[in-house]
TrEMBL record:
Enzyme Commission number: 3.6.1.55
Reactions performed catalytically: 8-oxo-GTP + H2O = 8-oxo-GMP + diphosphate + H(+); 8-oxo-dGTP + H2O = 8-oxo-dGMP + diphosphate + H(+)
Single Gene Ontology MF annotation: hydrolase activity
Key words, A-Z: DNA damage, DNA repair, DNA replication, Hydrolase, Magnesium, Metal-binding, Mutator protein
Name this protein carries in UniProt: 8-oxo-dGTP diphosphatase
Annotated Nudix hydrolase domain residues: 5-133
UniProt xrefs under PANTHER family: 8-OXO-DGTP DIPHOSPHATASE, NUDIX HYDROLASE FAMILY PROTEIN
Cofactor field: Mg(2+)
Length: 319
């Protein structure tokens, strides 16, 4: 066991509207010179993590952060130090980044890095940036197969869809997944299925979604899936998903929903409490939410939102 003191560190991912993010190179004279990382630094005595973020980015690149949200928490053990990294996504700032410490900066596209080498602690953070803002959960059991397929066919983005239809047997689910995959993959999206991982061998899927029972029973991350997520309702379940090195978690329910009328919702404060000071893996807030709740979810520490009924409603007509 590593018994070294853990040093609190903050880091900021400057975000552009199209999803591009900024990396900076480590200057000479520091450990890992020339490696690329998210700008930031140590939290000083008496500072909150947010205050440290504002100060570090002002000192390091001459910008003033005006809007940032907590995102991810990672502990990493380097040869020279053990650090707890609190990552923020920075959405707005005043000024243009300038290399105040002799470093270089580069805007990057998720999944398409053009700079190397990368600081070791950042691998899961870079992967998290490939996740979408919104996950769409199927609702065939309520709306019917035709309505869901039609709504999906009308989309012009690259949707990430989770098929969750517990009323279907394996054969019925396979047929539905085949139909949805043709639409999703033709648009460059991703398809994840909430089912027994053993069912999905040979299916046209990109990942598996684990319910609470399957998450609790696992000893290791399911093999052969590019993306693995879990449905969580507590801090313990979040930490378990992180221990298994899963890619994300659905966390809720945040607001009252028709499917859970007897269960008290977390509310926004409850969501923030479960993720504070930052989540151990990317969290999608779920439960009575839609894409319109994205900003609020981010303020409470979520990566994004997962929507079910709202995903398949027709867009309101413009006036």
């Amino acid at each position: 066991m590593d018994t070294r003191k853990i040093i609190p560190v903050v880091a900021g991912a400057l975000m552009q509207a199209d999803g591009h993010f900024m990396l900076g190179s480590r200057p000479a004279g520091k450990p890992y010179p020339g490696y690329w990382e998210f700008p930031g630094g140590k939290v000083e005595a008496g500072e909150s993590p947010y205050q440290a973020l504002v100060r570090e980015l002002q000192e390091e690149m001459g910008i003033t952060v005006t809007r940032a949200t907590p995102w991810l928490r990672r502990v990493h053990h380097y040869e020279h130090a053990s650090v707890e990294l609190l990552f923020y996504r920075v959405w707005a700032w005043d000024g243009e980044p300038q290399p105040h410490e002799g470093q270089s900066f580069a805007w990057q596209e998720p999944g398409q890095l053009s700079v190397q080498p990368m600081l070791p602690a950042n691998a899961p953070i870079l992967r998290a940036l490939q996740l979408p803002d919104v996950l769409h959960i199927s609702c065939v059991h309520e709306l019917g197969r035709d309505a869901v397929l039609e709504a999906l066919a009308q989309r012009d983005d690259e949707p990430w869809v989770i098929v969750r239809e517990p009323q279907l047997d394996r054969e019925q689910l396979a047929a539905l997944v085949g139909e949805i995959s043709q639409i999703v993959h033709a648009r460059g999206g991703k398809l994840i299925v909430n089912a027994d991982p053993a069912w999905l061998k040979g299916w046209p899927v990109d990942g598996v979604q684990l319910n609470g029972t399957r998450l609790a029973a696992l000893q290791e991350r399911p093999a052969h899936f590019t993306w693995v997520g879990a449905s969580c309702h507590s801090r313990a379940e979040l930490e378990r998903a992180a221990e298994l090195e899963l890619d994300y978690a659905l966390l809720g329910h945040v607001l009252a929903t028709a499917s859970h009328p007897a269960q008290a919702p977390l509310g926004w404060d409850g969501l923030a409490a479960l993720t504070a000071p930052a989540a151990p893996l990317p969290v999608f807030a779920i439960g009575g939410l839609s894409a319109a709740n994205l900003d609020e979810a981010r303020r409470c520490g979520a990566h994004g939102v997962a929507q079910m009924r709202a995903a398949w409603q027709p867009e309101p007509a413009s006036t």
